[in-house]
Amino acid sequence: MNQSTRPERIRAQLTAALAPSVLELTDESALHAGHAGAASGGSHFRLKIVSARFEGLRLVMRHRLVYDSVHDMMHNEIHALAITALAPSEL
Description:
Elements: H1 6-18, E1 22-27, H2 36-39, E2 43-50, H3 59-69, E3 78-86
């Protein structure tokens, strides 16, 4: 059985899919206590990710790549994911 934490699993999936040079993941679930999503067991996360895969892509496509990377965790383990997705040239 996988004993890693939810943030560790998110980081692992994003790293495998997008090979980011920067990956900052913050669990903001405590800020949303009492919220309907929190009651269902999903967590609220804020993500800053920098990946060469984002070069030349519009924001919506960058977000799609991120969501595709963690799709199996969405809705049951991740209720909300606030994303800042940058290409290395934008730093």
